[in-house]
Amino acid sequence: xxxxxxxxxTIAVLQKYQFHFQKKYGQNFLIDAHxxxxxxxxxxxxxxxxxxxxxxxxxxxxxxxCEHAKTVAAVEIDENLIPILQDTLKEYENVSVIHEDILKLxxxxxxxxxxxxxxxxxxxxxxxYITTPIIMGLFENHVPMESIxxxxxxxxxxxxxxxxxxxxxxxxxxxVQYYAKPQLIANVPPNCFMPRPKVGSAVIRLICxxxxxxxTVNEDFMFRIxxxxxxxxxxxxxxxLHNAQNLSLSKEAIFESIEKxxxxxxxxxxxxxxxxxxxxxxxxxxxxEQTDHEM
Length: 295
Known about the structure:
- There is one protein chain.
- The protein is α/β, with parallel strands linked by helices.
- It contains 12 helices and 9 strands.
- It has helices at 7-16, 33-43, 60-68, 82-88, 107-115, 131-140, 154-160, 171-179, 219-231, 237-243, 251-260, 274-294, and strands at 29-30, 50-54, 71-76, 95-99, 120-125, 145-153, 180-188, 193-194, 201-208.
- It has a 7-stranded mixed sheet, sandwiched between helices. A two-stranded antiparallel sheet has the order 1-8.
- α9 (219-231) packs across α10.
- The longest helix is centred in the last third of the chain and has 21 residues, at 274-294.
């Protein structure tokens, strides 16, 4: 196995295929062996695992995954990378390269076909512009997963693990922490990639919960409450919820629910924990159900 993580080997492959980086796909290939080893170590890949790799690039990490996993599915959107992957992965019989947009792929069906519906492990070096839709797509479609180990923009990693009351805390923090326990593995400077991105990156591991840490009557409604609470960060929680067009909540219902929780009416959404958001959503949802029943 010629280690593609070596910069000279990466350049040789790119030149052989006259590959040009495409800005629209946010392509930055990893060229640092230490970072690659950290990812592999923290992802805890074993010979029992089916691994889904999102954005394999030229197959740098894919080769290592093939060595350690039972089977690997590498999903790549750029058609120019498909012949390169077929070349760099030709030694391995336990990998399938899928030329597809990850956001359009039926991952439930894929995990059923490849792994009998058992929890899979996801590994990815995600383009910055599309990190959140990909991760939330995995969670919201309830793909059975044990963990997600991803390289993301440092700022996004900070937001995923942020605590209430901090500047990075927001809807993404709550969504990720509802589905998984985030664990920052390593900060990765721009010189670990080719081409160099303009910002720092980080490897973060999300260990998925079998059942969420909070109970909510309606998951979709809770996330609508959360998003509305952060739409206008400077406003109070009560005003943010009342102004949210997709909620149609009366001020009376909002005030009563907030006070019932023993919170100040001046509180902002950024101060609430996941548990408090679940409680608030449950109280408001019951109010809506009561109103509908009375009508």
